[in-house]
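Exam revision sheet. Question 4 asks you to relate a sequence to its structure. Input first:
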Amino acid sequence: MKFYEHLYVSEGIRGRENEIKKKLNEGTGMIGVHFIALPLYSGDLLEIYSAPELKQRWYRRSSLFIVGMAGSLTEAELLCADILMEIRKKQGDYNSRRFFGMDEGDV
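Answer key, structure tokens:
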């Protein structure tokens, strides 16, 4: 798992990014926290994962590229919408991989 250098963070957890990253890497439980990532497979814009889902060993060893984190599913959905609007405004399309500097084969 890798994190985007300029991680998008919802207001509900702003300032706790490092603590949450550490807990995720350790496999420590977190209630309500959700992560936004580039899709593992082409065709999707962004994907939302709950913290318990990412505790699974497969995800921790995967090439998942996390671009945002939020304190709840609703905050994650709103943050996804904000990210997609920014992508559209800057690029004129919704190609999230290109926006985050990833080629189709990178994730």
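Marking note for examiners. Helices lie at 17-26, 51-54, 57-61, 73-91, 96-99.
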